[in-house]
Sequence to fold (202 residues):
Amino acid sequence: MSQTVGWGDVLPQRERLLWHDHPASGVVIADFLTYRLLFGLVFTAFALFWTFAASWMGQSAGEADVFPFNLFPFFGVPFVLAGLYMMIGVPLWDAYERSRSSYALTNHAAYIATELFGRRKLTRYPVSDMNALELEDGALGTVWFKRDIQVHTTTRHTRNGSPRRQTYMSANRIGFKRISAARSVYGMIVRLMNERDETVST
Fold:
């Protein structure tokens, strides 16, 4: 495994290495042109409007330099940064993460290794846990093999002060992104999943 992800001999003895590679690095222009761009534009525009409006109202009222009114415009800064992250931060982070990643596939699991800011991480995804196999074909394709559904619960207060809980779900796709042998790797995983199903059925 040391030649595949640089982590030493971490493969269990029963596992046989079928494929390994590094994802292609670089920013993908198409990653900017998603629903996040529109949502981020609206979010950032509203945050900027709120920030400038708060600053203008403070100046108009002659309270721009009076505490705590002089802090009101800064309350919008985190929301501006969040909107910018949605528009440009997510694709840039994805490009950085890919540049520091390695992939491997064995006859029992997929491995994704990353080294971000000096911290190494190796995650194993058994074939039995792969629940959403999908191929995005191309010269540099992507093989998605797992979808994690996360449930989030937030508590908000209504006008009369009573708490109101809201629950929503988000999906996170996991896979080998921007690899040159996407079709081949996809075929390998299909065969592994078929072998697993045959073993379970018998």
Observations:
- The beta strands are 17-21, 101-106, 109-116, 119-126, 134-136, 141-157, 163-179.
- The chain has one domain: 17-201.
- The two ends are 32 Å apart (CA to CA).
